[in-house]
Amino acid sequence: MTSPACPLCKKRGIPVDRATVICHAKESAWPIGDNPYHICENPGCEVVYFSSGGCLKKADVKTRVTFKESGPPRPLCYCKQVTEEDVISAIKQGAKTVEDVIEATGIGGGGLCKFTNPYGRCCSRYYLPFIKRALESQ
Ligand SMILES: [Zn+2]
């Protein structure tokens, strides 16, 4: 089964749970309806979530969705509220390994990703590659 395409940019979306969309939708975008939602992963597209009943753009979502943002703060771990800037700062202050960064920032293990992360998925698939890249670029 292929995913439906974003109504604005036509890129295929990734399915997201309705509970996740409810957590991130601004009250002004209520009601979000009962149709299944998808997230648009195109960084340049204003649409965050869409369903066959409509879409929620960046302005309709209260959470900063990291890949849609070019400036700080760029959230990395929503449960523990750690940003990309926090990770960079930990590395500047001497963190040398992924474990050091985890210890210094408290990133990961929050367990609430279904509600806090705009994908509704564990943040580690995003923050681990980011931490590795940040360490390598030092
Ligand atoms: Zn889009």
From TrEMBL:
Domain of life, source organism: Archaea
Domain BFD-like [2Fe-2S]-binding intervals: 76-113
Residue ranges constituting the CopZ zinc binding domain according to the UniProt record: 5-62
Parts of the chain that traverse the membrane: none
Coiled-coil segments: none
Gene3D superfamilies: 2.20.25.270, BFD-like [2Fe-2S]-binding domain (1.10.10.1100)
Protein's UniProt name: (2Fe-2S)-binding protein
Organism (species): Methanosuratincola subterraneus
